[in-house]
Design goal:
Elements lengths: L4 E6 L7 E5 L2 E7 L4 H22 L3 H15 L8 E5 L7 E4 L4 E5 L7 H16 L5 H7 L5 H15 L9 E5 L5 E5 L2
Parallel strand pairs: 1-3, 4-6
Antiparallel strand pairs: 2-3, 5-6, 7-8
Helix pairs in contact: 2-3, 3-5
Length: 189
């Protein structure tokens, strides 16, 4: 068994295997009827799937630049050519930024792990700044060319609102989404 992997078997779980990250540990949920060999096979399979999903959700700077170029060609006229696109961890109040003078785009590391269509929206938003520096009507017209722009804006607004909500004093139920899309119900507090 790889380090930092916890296997939890359940008699109630019949046909599904799932996994989620819990800090630096990965929890794998399995039906209790599986043999040791089947457990090892499923753990290896689910860890590989989880790692692949994380690679897709956390692309490298090089992959971001390639993705930005593709989005630019598909959704923007011109198309604008970014000089570089990279992750930065010093942006706490915005999702991305662009310097039109040198063609650099920076995305907040807070976007890592968000759905790819949300990251694509932020990239299109910043690419549009290479053509139109401000947030006027022409800028928003360009951004609207991305088919999921309204949906992504709503998603980001929801995340931003949730990040600024005051903590409750009383314990409350929360549904926490995990990397594999499974929801785990926990009582906070």
């Amino acid at each position: 068994m790889p380090p930092n992997v916890e296997v939890r078997r359940s008699a109630r779980r019949r046909r599904t295997v799932s996994a989620y990250r819990d800090g630096d540990k990965t929890v794998v949920l399995l039906p209790s009827r599986l043999t040791q060999a089947e457990e090892e096979q499923w753990v290896a399979t689910i860890l590989e799937r989880l790692a692949e999903r994380e690679r897709r959700r956390r692309p490298s700077d090089e992959a971001l630049l390639e993705r930005a170029r593709d989005l630019s060609c598909r959704y923007l006229p011109g198309p604008p050519e970014p000089a570089s696109v990279r992750w930065v961890d010093n942006q706490r109040s915005r999702w991305g930024s662009c310097t039109p003078d040198d063609g650099t785009i920076r995305l907040s590391t807070r976007l890592r792990g968000m759905p790819s269509w949300v990251i694509d929206y932020v990239l299109v938003h910043e690419l549009a700044h290479l053509l139109v520096p401000g947030h006027g009507p022409r800028f928003w017209e360009l951004v609207a060319g991305y088919p999921k722009s309204e949906r992504a804006r709503g998603y980001l607004e929801g995340v931003a609102a949730a990040m600024h909500m005051p903590a409750e004093d009383e314990p409350q139920a929360e549904d926490e989404p995990h990397a594999d899309g499974e929801l785990r119900h926990e009582v906070a507090g």
